[in-house]
């Protein structure tokens, strides 16, 4: 909507206004509220009322400054503003207001506050998930963002979303800080890639992003692969085994999980063999750490965060850890 763009206008001082004469518009950042340092972003103000002009006001400065969109004739209740270049050392918080050009000093209620997140270079926090990265619909997940540099607040951002979650940090012990983000009951829309950021209260600067964490939602594809093991489910320590995940219908990727492990699942592209799609996960030489319950899932590349139902569980038993060194020594001296 070219005639709604006010991005080129200089900042104007806020005129005296009568707030609240109209209901509030909605302000969003496109494509994302997370903006790279030095980059620009488009802020879009939408309303259900037919305003023909909008103000975008930056908050947090001593004197609020506003951009004005040009009134237009098509009655499209939307304006877009370009903001940038942005830097991590300042806070970038905005609200927008709608007005009718016939009474430009009467403004709507303000939109909810929109804060842009500009990652800095301070130490990245860690991001982990309990009970694990693969979750069934209806269950709850807790994502924990933590740091050993004592951040006071954390945000969690899911790639592609228009907003992020913010939580104060708590300190379980000196120097450590963390925040828990509980998601649920989980739906397919929770699947995706997450990152978190930390900041100190006395600074507007956010940290570098954590490493990405993929959350995968099971049971979103109506299929169930099978899982088998060669040469068999009981294996001697030091030997090698292969876990075979198979599907009759086409699948792009197979994933292997181990019960109780918080690590990301192993992923392999599927191969077509003997009228079935499959992936072979080799393991070994095995130790007692490999013992446990395994399941496999499959996914399509069009949405890698949505999985099939799990295979039936497969129990891998590792027998013996090799000769006991103490017993061997006793036998040798006998």
UniProtKB/TrEMBL annotation:
Name any one Pfam family assigned in the record: Ig_3
Picking any one GO molecular function of the record gives: inhibitory MHC class I receptor activity
Report the residue ranges that make up the Ig-like domain in this protein: 125-214, 225-308
Cellular location(s): Cell membrane
Q: Tell me what this protein is called.
A: Ig-like domain-containing protein
User: What cellular component GO annotations does this protein have?
Assistant: plasma membrane
Annotated membrane topology: Single-pass membrane protein
User: Which UniProt keyword terms apply here?
Assistant: Cell membrane, Disulfide bond, Glycoprotein, Immunoglobulin domain, Membrane, Repeat, Signal, Transmembrane, Transmembrane helix
Q: Which superkingdom?
A: Eukaryota
Q: Which organism is it from?
A: Chlorocebus sabaeus
GO terms (BP aspect): cytokine-mediated signaling pathway; immune response-regulating signaling pathway
């Amino acid at each position: 909507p070219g005639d709604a763009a006010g991005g080129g206008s200089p900042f104007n001082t806020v005129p005296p206004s009568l707030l609240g004469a109209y209901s509030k518009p909605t302000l969003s950042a496109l494509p994302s509220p997370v903006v790279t340092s030095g980059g620009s972003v488009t802020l879009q103000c939408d309303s259900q009322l037919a305003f023909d002009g909008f103000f975008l006001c930056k908050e947090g400065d001593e004197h609020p400054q506003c951009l004005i969109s040009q009134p237009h004739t098509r009655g499209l209740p939307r304006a877009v503003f370009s903001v940038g270049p942005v830097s991590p050392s300042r806070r970038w918080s905005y609200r927008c207001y709608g007005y009718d050009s016939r009474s430009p000093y009467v403004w709507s209620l303000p939109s909810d506050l929109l804060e842009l997140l500009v990652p800095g270079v301070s130490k990245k926090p860690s991001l982990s998930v309990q009970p694990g990265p693969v979750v069934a619909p209806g269950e709850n997940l807790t994502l924990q963002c933590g740091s050993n540099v004592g951040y006071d607040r954390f945000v969690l951002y899911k790639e592609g979303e228009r907003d992020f979650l913010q939580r104060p940090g708590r300190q379980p012990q000196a120097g450590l800080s963390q925040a828990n983000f509980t998601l649920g009951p989980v739906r397919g829309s929770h699947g995706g890639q997450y990152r978190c950021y930390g900041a100190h209260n006395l600074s507007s600067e956010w940290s570098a992003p954590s490493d990405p964490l993929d959350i995968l939602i099971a049971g979103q594809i109506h299929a169930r692969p099978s899982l088998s093991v060669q040469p068999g489910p009981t294996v001697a320590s030091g030997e090698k085994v292969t876990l075979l995940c198979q599907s009759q219908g086409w699948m792009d990727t197979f994933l292997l999980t181990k019960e109780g492990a918080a690590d990301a699942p192993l992923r392999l592209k599927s191969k077509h063999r003997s009228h079935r799609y499959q992936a072979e996960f080799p393991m070994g030489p095995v130790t007692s750490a490999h013992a446990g319950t395994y399941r496999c899932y499959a996914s399509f590349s069009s949405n890698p965060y949505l999985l099939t139902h799990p295979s039936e569980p497969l129990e891998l038993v590792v027998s013996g850890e090799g000769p006991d060194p103490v017993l061997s020594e006793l036998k040798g001296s006998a």
